[in-house]
Amino acid sequence: MRQLHARFYALFAIVAGLLFSGCANVHYANDYKSGTDFNNLKTYSWRAVTVDIGGTDPALLERLADNQLAAQGFARTHDKPDLLLDMQVFARQSKGGNSSIGIGIGMPIGRNGSVGLGTSQLLNRGKQEGVMLIDVTRASDNTLIWRGSAEGIPLIQFSLSAEQKLGATMAQLLGQFPPATAP
Fold it and tell me: Which of the four pLDDT bands, split at 50, 70 and 90, describes residue 3?
């Protein structure tokens, strides 16, 4: 009987771990102009940083992006940059609902115990999420050549105490630039 309980709790721990690992809701995407040669584009300058989430410092976001781009070999310059960057950060109503699995466990008291599994749909009405968009434009002809987005960022990541998490989000977003499939 104890072996059965031990197996059950091990299975429960695995299922719970899988459920909680699925809570990372940030979705990253990027798009680029086909045929663009990114190899000779090494310098950039910021054209605009727009932040519509209260309490968020645009200079912090710019610094986090600068750190990530420098780690990728790009240099910020004000004198004839190869690229112009624009960043928009805003909050919006969360899309749709989250599917979840509910698990109930009855502790064995005497000879009785129970286990129940069920599913439910949780709607996120009124829940806000952060969105970050970065556009990269070739300065020579003002052509948009890359756009990256991060959607579903928890608004708590835009607080002063969560700079590390916001930095990780920025690293994941800009880590897609330049695209690996570009010529």
Answer: low
Which of these, 26, 9, 22, lies nearest to 113 by C-alpha position? Answer: 9
Q: Which of 62, 115, 123, 113 is nearest to 89 (CA)?
A: 62
Residue 47: Cβ-neighbour burial (10 angstroms; 0-12, 13-18, 19+): middle
Q: What is the pLDDT of residue 180?
A: 83
Question: Is the CB of residue 130 less than 8 Å from the CB of residue 121?
Answer: no
Long-range CB contact pairs, 59-68, < 8 A, 24+:
60/163, 60/166, 61/87, 61/89, 61/132, 61/166, 61/170, 62/87, 64/163, 64/166, 64/167, 64/170, 65/134, 65/170, 65/174, 67/167, 68/167, 68/170, 68/171, 68/174, 68/175
Distances (CA, A) of 27 to 116, 122, 162, 176: 32, 19, 19, 13
The mean pLDDT of 137-147, rounded to a whole number, is 97
At 72-99, the pLDDT tens digits run 999 999 999 999 999 999 999 987 555 5
